[in-house]
Amino acid sequence: MVEQTTGKNSRIQWLLPLLRLVYDLAWLSLLLFVSPWWVTRSVFSPEFRAMVAGRLAIAGPRLGPPPSGGRILVHGVSVGEVKASQSLVAALVKDHEVVVSASTDSGLMVARALYPDLTVVRFPLDFRPSLLRFIRCIQPTSVVLLELEVWPLFVHCTDRRGIPTAIVSGRITPASLANYQRFGPALTHFDRIALFAAQSEIYAHRFRAIGVDPKRVLVTGNVKSDGLQMEKPGAQEAVDELRKLLAIDPKVPVLLAGSTHAMEELLVTEAFAAAAPEARIILVPRHPPRVPEVLKELGQAGFSPQLLTELRAGQKVDPSQAVVVDTIGELESLYGLCTLAFVGGTLVEHGGQNVLEPAAQAKPVLHGPSVSNFQQEAALLGQAGASLLVRNREDLQDAVAHLIGNPELARTMGEHGQEAVRGQQGATQRTLEALGEFRILHPESTPRN
Description:
Layout: H1 2-12, H2 16-44, H3 46-55, E1 71-75, H4 79-84, H5 86-92, E2 97-102, H6 105-114, E3 119-122, H7 128-138, E4 142-146, H8 152-160, E5 165-170, H9 174-187, E6 195-198, H10 201-209, E7 217-219, H11 224-227, H12 235-245, E8 254-260, H13 264-275, E9 280-285, H14 291-300, E10 306-307, H15 308-312, E11 323-324, H16 331-337, E12 340-343, H17 356-360, E13 365-367, H18 375-384, E14 387-389, H19 393-405, H20 407-423, H21 427-437
């Protein structure tokens, strides 16, 4: 497979300049098409105007020359990747200047909350004029991309300027693997990425399968494991504040559904209510803009949920009603006060969200079968006896009732999950060593053609 892919790469090398031109023209055509709408909406929405300015790199900080230790751009596309970067960023800032970037509004919001003392910027469109402005303004000496956020022209532009790029906590889903094998060699310039630090040997094998030089692929683990909330300083204070705000009775079970997607909130609420009518139910939609839709759906089914922001504004708590969380960045603290956790994106065809977050806090984990985005993590918890697989509402209802009725089993599952997460830690140090070995942290300036 590797030989076939490498051969394909060599045959299309002469086409790459033409492909890059076509790619740029495609972006230009798209921008011309959407520009009337962008301009109109920008006039009436400062938030949208800021988004457009950031994506086109026509606004934002203009940093001076990098310091002697170098300036490292750490990029995570959205909330999950930004949060995953915490332990790595904390280690990098000891000796380097770090700039954090994200693509989504929610990712930027979380990044600014996590890194108030760092420069946080929006990642630009993969359009040459935007990219060149962005690189001139930030002047990074190295780039670290979380998981597999590879934009072909960005990698091409940084490589041309002698700015080495590394993938850390790298992973590829089976679907992405198939797409990269089909189109990747022509577009993503994997040969211009200095290091692929993979989460596991499974992902490392997939990188090699798309033609990456095996010498540039290492298994360093998932830095997200090092950043999970396990006895963090100040973490308990946030949990206690939420417990007081929600008037949580210590004798009443708390059932939490985290990072839920469309169609999951109602299903989960009905299952929770049927399994444990006395329980407090907390729903945390993955995307807060969906909250009005969630409230409408639950209201039509006879539920009267309360919003976390309204409770903070002084609304009286009704313990008989579910709480819908309409804020960003509080899920880990909410996991800290629940009895058991269902992880969303798994009962719909999405691929799942991070099942390790509740496990890190010794909570038994329930999830559906759609876990392609976190296959390794789900398998880890399953093998440790820390999670239960549920395939539908009935399964979820039965599992919740079983765990509520067997608190010792729930406690044991939680302990096994936390121990499994602890065993995954250490990836940050291994990643730092790899970044040093491949001269990502202290690169030599060698611009390429």
